[in-house]
Amino acid sequence: MSPTRRMPPSPLSWIVAALVMVLLLSCGCATKPQGATLQEKQSFVLGTSSEILAMVYDQQPKVEENIKVAPGYAVFTYRLSKLPIVIGGLGGGGGYGFAVNNETGEQTFMKVTMGEWGLGLGTRVFGSVFVFDDAETMDRFIKRGWEFGGGADAALKNEEAGLATNVGMSVAPGMKIYSVSMSGVAYAATLRGTKYSVDQQMND
Predict the structure, then answer these.
(1) How high is the mean pLDDT in each 10-residue block of the chain (204 residues)?
(2) How far apart are alpha carbons 82 and 109 in whole angstroms?
(3) What span, in angstroms and rounded, lies between the C-alpha atoms of 42 and 17?
């Protein structure tokens, strides 16, 4: 009985493996705050978050007023990478940010993990601002974490002005989420499959 011959890996399998590695490396580099020390990483998150807030305020000035009277808010930066259609449009990514209790001024640094299946190719960088309607929702979001369910894409239409904008709003129980494209180009900011939790290392 002759031994079973193993077929060598096909060129396609090598391409897929290489693309997966690129995806993992690109996501990993961008989903962690930059800096050598804890203070530098925290400053990096705060600086990036300030840029996102400024972009949202510029497009939706009422958000700034809403945040002032809200019990708290949170700001996040994401990077989502997607592979080609030949492997099913596999995607993934993550991000970082922080939540603020307006009553106490306490800041809690948080992390984000993301996953997406669908068609497409490329990398998207975007941010979001969460405005909490009540303290209970804010506390639950921070202490227990939270996950955005399927089909929760931000709309990109300013209904009042009737004009396209690069800021979209989604509504979840007890909160509103404003998503903004970092490139300034209008698109559907995908948040489905996104999990938020406290980053213990960033809060040490």
Answers:
(1) 53 44 44 87 94 90 95 90 46 83 96 63 73 96 83 42 57 86 52 85 89
(2) 26
(3) 34
